[in-house]
Amino acid sequence: MNRGALWTLVRRDLARERGALVTSGFGIAAGTAALVFFLALGLGVRSVLLGDVFPIDQVELESPKANDPGLLGLVFGRGEQPGITAKQVSQLKALPEVEAAYPKLKFSFPASARGGKEVFGREVGTSEMIGDGIAIALVAEGDLLGDFPFVDPLKHPGKPCRHTHQCEAPQYCEGPAGADGVCVDPVPVLISHYLIEIFDKSVAPAHNLPPVGKTLIEKAGGVVFKLWLGESLLGRSKKGGPRHVHARVVGISDRAIDLGVTLPLTVVQRFNREYTGDQAAENFSSVVLKAKNAASVSRIMNAGRELDLVPRDTRARDVSVLISGVMALLALVGVIILVVSASNIAYTFRVLVSERRREIALYRAVGASAVDMMKWLMALALTMGALGGAVGLGVSWLLSKLANYLAASRLPDFPFKPDSFFAFPWWLVCGGFLFASLFAAIGAIGPARRAGKVEPAAALASLS
Fold it and tell me: Are 110 and 75 in contact (CB under 8 A)?
């Protein structure tokens, strides 16, 4: 039987048996829609949580919390602040699973901040400012806003000074309190997308402030504020005199600390040495390791344990396991529907073979082989499955649009609220289409084999 004749039979049967085939195909369409809808939802949520909120392809290691003397220990001078040495960073960077190592150094002294009049129309601030430092090489060009570089201002010092009014704006006088300094540009600062999301969705509404989205910061041309060092609401550093530096927001980066500000590493080392001591400047507070793939994260954490380092946050791994489990359960619902649909197709095709036993016998009598009969029914089943799969894919896409509309109009804004909760990669669309055809074919295998076994003489004799 050539392809033309086979397609003619399939088109004729689609018209003749459309009622029974539509009923059977409905299950295929429903199963495909459920399977693709739930998987697309899981993939969409996963891409937001494990991409923006909890990156799954990186891990941040730090010294064990048990070794930390705590706030009182640091205030009263008991114990030493734990840290990661440069040698440990080199050992971790040499691991075959590690793509890059990003050492970080947090403030070891109290600090506060105030400014933002260009954005908010009035001065705002925080009595406790958290900060850390990262290597300059880690900042991508796309993270920076305008022409402001992310470099240590002391690399390009100006004239000597004693007070900031001796410098030309926007420069300020940089140096320890009570000592001579030099005029330098404001310290470059990075902020995170997470901080902007938290501020826009939670802090700004509570204090009647405008949102500070990325566009607004870009238009501000680099927001300058004052960063007070060595003193905050909770206390004052025992070493070094309190002073303030001028800081400027120069970019929004995924490398920035979630809640706080991120400065060049050498700047934080200099500040830590001034207010805490040499050890606080030489040892890193943590190291972020970028894995070559998500599967390598566990091996990297094991290597970190051998160096007496522990993950700072395991939420990414926990969220990944949770989402995978939920996606598996939801996908199982769609597969069950497809299995039930396959059994329904098997019943429909068994009835079809029984009702058309004489027709099959005539085909066999005029030269059609058993394989031709099997091809006929399998082609009919595959066509029905493909049509059902196409309908199911269309339904799942429409349902995703409806769900996104309801989420946008009914749900309040919250941090990292995505424009779409769904993701439809090409492999999911193709996989849904193939699954629909596969289960339709599975349901038709038995009846197709039965049709191929029909003996022309016996079938015609029983019906004469």
Answer: no
Element (H, E) at 60: strand 58-62
How far apart CA 406 and CA 279 sit, in angstroms, is 54
> Which DSSP symbol is given to 463?
T
Average pLDDT (368-390) is 81
Question: How would residue 263 be classed by pLDDT, with cut points 50, 70 and 90?
Answer: very high
Rounded to whole angstroms, the Cα distance separating 206 from 194 reads 18
CA distance 106 to 443: 62
Task: Report the alpha-carbon distance of residue 107 to residue 234 in Å, rounded.
Answer: 14
Angle between helices 18-48 and 315-355 (to 10 degrees): 170
Using 50, 70 and 90 to split pLDDT, how confident is the model at 441?
confident
Domains for the chain: give ranges and CATH numbers: 3-52+319-462 (no CATH), 57-107+278-312 (3.30.70), 109-275 (no CATH)
Are 198 and 259 spatial neighbours (Cβ–Cβ below 8 Å)?
A: yes
Q: What is the mean pLDDT of residues 45-54?
A: 64
Closest CA to 225 of 122, 310, 145: 122
Q: Concatenated DSSP letters for 157-181?
A: --SEESSGGGSPTT-EEESSTTS-E
Q: Which amino acid is at 411?
A: L
- pLDDT, tens digit (0-9, with 9 covering 90-100), for 321-342: 677 777 788 778 778 887 887 7
Handedness of CA 46, 51, 57, 62 (dihedral sign): negative
Those residues whose C-beta lies under 8 Å from the C-beta of residue 98, and which sit 6 or more positions away, are: 92, 289, 290, 291, 292, 296, 300
What's the pLDDT at 75? Answer: 45
What lies within 8 Å, CB to CB, of 162 at 6+ separation is 173, 180, 181
Q: Which of 111-120, 277-286, 396-405 shows the lowest per-residue confidence on average (mean pLDDT)?
A: 111-120
Asked if 384 and 21 touch (Cβ cutoff 8 Å), the reply is: yes
First-to-last alpha carbon distance for the chain, in angstroms, is 27
What is the token pair recorded at 185? 């540009």
In one-letter notation, the amino acid at residue 139 is: V
Confidence of residue 367 (pLDDT cuts 50, 70, 90): low
Q: What is the largest CA-CA distance in the chain?
A: 117
Contact in structure between 393 and 33 (CB atoms under 8 Å): yes
CB 345 within 8 A of CB 444: yes
For residue 31, give both structure tokens. 């199963």
